[in-house]
Design a protein that fits this description.
alpha/beta, two-stranded antiparallel ribbon, about 300 residues, 10 helices
């Protein structure tokens, strides 16, 4: 492991506290028992290298990803970590959220979460969600709460609910090839001071995937992306991360298990893309000119 932790840049959340702008994702972790120890070691390495924000969800591997996290954080001081998980919409109510959170906390071997998110809206009662989240804050079970996969209309509905504006983050799919949020969601959130947390910042293994799971383009083989990477002496994944991290009000949570990939992710935060770089990247993957349906996976 590294002798010194990299100082990860932080962002101020709406409640006045700070969170790292680069963390570790855990989607698909815990699904293969043979990879369990490697995934645990990967998260541990990342934490030791300075990536103290870890994102997971009760949905990921039916809790097995949360178990990976719990095993990974044992040797670290809890106060040095920023842990978040996500609750199913069908569990985000007074009848289920308390037991859902208890299960997540047990699997993650912690007494509280730094951030708890509604995983997606579906038919969740937003008034009920906010009441429960605020109650969990009052009980000290979570420090703050947010949402995931919310578009502008969803956030507008949330803001109409009492205390709905206490939401601290919206986690959405965002990368060079999935730029739909730049049209209206990102400006809306900036106006409200609500940070974006970007999952899939490098696509899915470099591919762009539609909601039905069909690959529609490849970030890894695009000539302009490759040219920008060559110019900076960087990998393509690093350029994709740099694209997201160039915006100071966005948090990125790439998933990586191998130590070399984790090191690459950390180094990507130091890459400064120029206007020429952005023109080349946008030539292949242009920003939206109209409203597009929110992409997710």
């Amino acid at each position: 492991m590294k002798d010194e932790k990299k100082q990860i840049e932080k962002i101020m959340l709406p409640d006045g506290t700070y969170a790292p702008r680069l963390g570790q994702g855990t989607w698909k972790m815990g699904e293969d028992d043979e990879k369990f120890l490697r995934e645990v070691e990967g998260l541990r390495y990342g934490i030791s290298a300075g990536l103290n924000l870890i994102d997971t969800a009760e949905m990921y591997g039916d809790g097995k990803a949360e178990n990976v996290v719990g095993n990974a954080i044992r040797e670290f001081k809890r106060e040095d970590l920023f842990l978040l998980s996500k609750v199913y919409p069908q569990n985000a109510n007074r009848n289920h959220i308390y037991s859902s959170l208890d299960c997540s906390l047990k699997l993650m071997e912690t007494d509280y979460l730094d951030l708890y998110l509604l995983h997606w809206r579906e038919d969740a009662d937003l008034s009920e969600v906010v009441y429960c989240m605020e109650d969990l804050k009052d009980k000290g079970r979570i420090k703050r709460w947010g949402v995931s996969n919310f578009d502008v209309a969803d956030l507008e509905d949330l803001w109409k609910v009492p205390d709905g504006d206490r939401c601290c983050v919206n986690q959405v799919l965002y990368n060079l090839g999935s730029r739909g949020i730049e049209y209206d969601l990102l400006p809306w959130q900036r106006d409200k001071g609500l940070p974006i947390m970007a999952y899939g910042p490098a696509g899915r293994a470099g591919d762009l995937v539609t909601q039905d799971g069909v690959s529609k383009a490849s970030l890894m083989t695009d000539e302009n992306v490759a040219a920008v990477a060559k110019k900076h002496g960087a990998s393509i994944v690093q350029i994709l991360l740099a694209f997201v991290l160039r915006q100071k009000d966005i948090i990125a949570i790439p998933k990586a298990v191998g130590k070399n990939h984790i090191d690459e992710n950390i180094a990507a935060a130091c890459i400064k893309l120029t206007e020429e770089d952005m023109e080349m990247l946008s030539a292949s993957f242009p920003p939206p000119e109209d409203k597009v349906p929110m992409e997710k996976y």
